[in-house]
């Protein structure tokens, strides 16, 4: 897919990495400094979603002020042709969540080192009185050298500043949220340390500490359950690591570490005292090739088997033709009549030439040597190279390459959901607040969960086949009903005990079909309560004047 623009100022837009309903991620290039860049584009219709614009501007503001080797650097922000854009550092690697999806867990030393670097990023943010609020594997980028950088400060909390959402809203990704985020209490640096503990737990064990079948189950576990120590899932984890992780996951903020420096001291002590080796990160976080690297032909030693055989074939063929040409030139120079040698001498020349082929070549590619042999057509005809056998060899190579490609073990998954959903596979969050998801997964059997706080979760069994594409289209509105509530003078609206909004309402309230308790509260009047029965597709109108 081509980017909608070719340039943003001096920045060139090259490749669309991800395309969503509101934003687009693009890999670009800055010619003046000869470096790749990562560009976030907000689509023009985003102007109707003020919260997205506010979050976008906050991220630009925060990251521009934060300068740390462990935080993704922001270069510039602006608007062009209706697109708001943010240009930032390009990390040549991949996000931690993608690696965990591929590898499930990381070696102990590498996991601790990434946690150490994430802590340094939090330390830089906390010193500026900034709380990230959404630390998770998807927001930690790691390059091929193992350098980790924290990104996505769009939901960060700036000191005592009023947040960009309602006070009762839940901000963050469910599996990594601290209890105080769920209950709406004051946020502190310890809030980020809880998310750090959940991330480290997952790196060590391959399992989220507070996984659940749906959004609500996940939140319930965070509030009420203590996960088993990581060593229960992996017996090679030292007791000191168990102690650190469980301390980070304490329910009460004051029981967690209060400063990033305390966590850094513990991690460094564990690494030094237990002599843990940090494994080469290149095996786990492969970076993309740069433009210069892509123009260099790969060495035969690093080529896949079919490429190596192709190189050997053409190399052997070239060597053979060169040797034949040398023999022909030599015989021609020795005698002007050499072009009319009898068949016996031609055969002897061909035999001697064949005998002079390198032994190592015959051992590596006996089937190729066999197909390239001289073919005698008759007593009176000279031997010659068969071009037909070369064509056959090419055909065989093409078929082998196709067979190799067919061994792809991944499948494509397309999801379209209304109004939006948190998408997870076997409890692993793929995306949040998503209307569109396009991705590749390993072939296999999964359980797909689409969750929305206003509806019951929808569970789909998936059987993804290698090389195939599956599409899931779902709308929560299939079983939805609407409430149109008008109150005088005004009221806070609660549905089934949950605060929804205050009147006058700017929209109809969406609920699942069935029975619901509606409460209208005003501190100066009596609370009005009524039980309404809703049917899918219907709109129930409530008009009420509150009494003193």
Weakly predicted, low-confidence segments: 158-171, 289-309, 330-386
Q: Determine the strand fraction and express it as a percent band.
A: 25-35%
- Rg from Cα: 32 Å
Number of strands: 23
| CATH H-tier superfamily of the largest domain | Transferase(Phosphotransferase) domain 1
Distance between the termini: 62 Å
- Our count of helices gives 15
Helical fraction equals 25-40%
Q: How are the strands of the biggest sheet laid out side by side? A: 1-2-3-4-6-5
Domain module count: 5
Molecular structure report:
By secondary structure, the chain is α+β, with helices and mostly antiparallel strands. The chain folds into five domains: 7-89, Phosphorylase Kinase, domain 1 (2-Layer Sandwich), CATH 3.30.200.20; 94-158 and 170-280, Transferase(Phosphotransferase) domain 1 (Transferase(Phosphotransferase), domain 1, Orthogonal Bundle), CATH 1.10.510; 309-405; 410-476, Immunoglobulins (Immunoglobulin-like); 478-545, Sandwich (Immunoglobulin-like). Helices cover 33% and strands 28% of the residues. The protein has 15 helices and 23 strands. The protein has helices spanning 50-65, 96-103, 108-127, 179-183, 189-205, 215-224, 230-233, 239-248, 260-273, 291-294, 305-334, 343-355, 359-364, 366-371, 387-405, and strands at 7-8, 11-19, 23-30, 35-42, 74-80, 83-89, 93-95, 130-131, 140-143, 148-150, 157-158, 410-425, 428-442, 444-452, 455-464, 469-475, 480-488, 492-495, 498-502, 509-512, 514-521, 528-534, 539-545. The strands form six sheets. A six-stranded antiparallel β-sheet has the order 1-2-3-4-6-5, with helices on one face. Strand 14 and strand 15 form a beta hairpin. The longest helix has 30 residues, at 305-334. The protein is globular, with a radius of gyration of 32 Å. The two termini are 62 Å apart. Mean pLDDT is 75; it is low at 158-171, 289-309 and 330-386.
